[in-house]
Amino acid sequence: MGIRKIITALLPLLIFAVLIAFLWHGIGRDPHVLPSALLNKPAPTFTVNTVYKSQKTFSNQDLHGKISLVNVWATWCFVCKREHQVLDQIANQDVVTIYGLDYKDNRGKAIAWLSERGDPYQKIGFDATGRIAINWGVYGTPETFLVDQQGIIRYKHVGEMTMAIWQQDFLPLIAKLKHKGIVHE
Amino acid sequence: MNKIMVIILLSLCAMVCVGKTAAQYQFASSAQQQQFSDITHQLRCLVCQNEDLWDSQAKLAADLRAEVASMVQQGQSNQQIKAYMVARYGDFILYKPRLDVTTYLLWFGPLVAILIGLWIVISSIYQNNKRTLPKLSEAQQAKLDLLQTKGEQHD
Description:
The complex is a heterodimer of chains A (185) and B (155).
Chain A: H1 3-27, E1 47-49, E2 57-59, E3 68-73, H2 78-93, E4 97-103, H3 107-117, E5 123-127, H4 131-135, E6 143-147, E7 153-158, H5 163-184
Parallel strand pairs in A: 3-4, 4-5
Antiparallel strand pairs in A: 1-2, 3-6, 6-7
Chain B: H1 2-23, H2 30-42, H3 59-73, H4 78-89, H5 104-132, H6 138-154
């Protein structure tokens, strides 16, 4: 048997193996989790009214000078109820400033919801029409963005925030950003 | 008879849903209306990911249609509107994947695979045909000739 024949015989198997490798890599992934198109880009320019009238407005200027989380939520979002407890705990850790974006919601309901469950948010934007959220590439709730001291989006988590995700995905990145912040000052 | 009625009713409902999308927005010209229809057919609904923006009944799709409609009314081009969406949602929002170096495998892969398969099939048939007639030595060939002519004579 010539070497050519051996190669011809093995080639389909090789191609199959490569194909299986690609499919295997894809099979564990959730097709509904889309990577953010805004990673490492500045947060979109926006100004929006806040849920509490006393806070006046929430804009991208608020996101400068500190590491922030921007959490998109709504009272009609079932999963957001569970996530809220985690956000309360994160707020207590004093590691980041948490901003909220209330997505296509009812102001009265939002205020009632927060008085029941606690308010981890420094400010909460009231996105009645959802247009602000579109600029952030939001396609569902909840979604949480990590924004650095220069207002650049560094990470996005689609779906419920849990303590595990906070510890595994967010904290290491935050530590890196804090280190960068110190070095550059 | 009942089955036919059900099919007719469902078809009417489907037509109403599509009609709703078209009539919802006011455009200055039929050209703009056509542009709106074209673009919403070329963008994907991110919630119902197999549907385009035109068809999908998801709330996000309705919001994105409103965005597209206002951009069309402002006179923006197809390219500008698509760039706006891709900047926010990534390539996935395009219903048809882009054709560039990174997607050549996606676009041409199946065709190439079929061609390779055809080549394999044809070449193995060709080889099979070659193998049907074994090589004979001179003595065997002579015997064969003799047998063949003998056979003809008997016919």
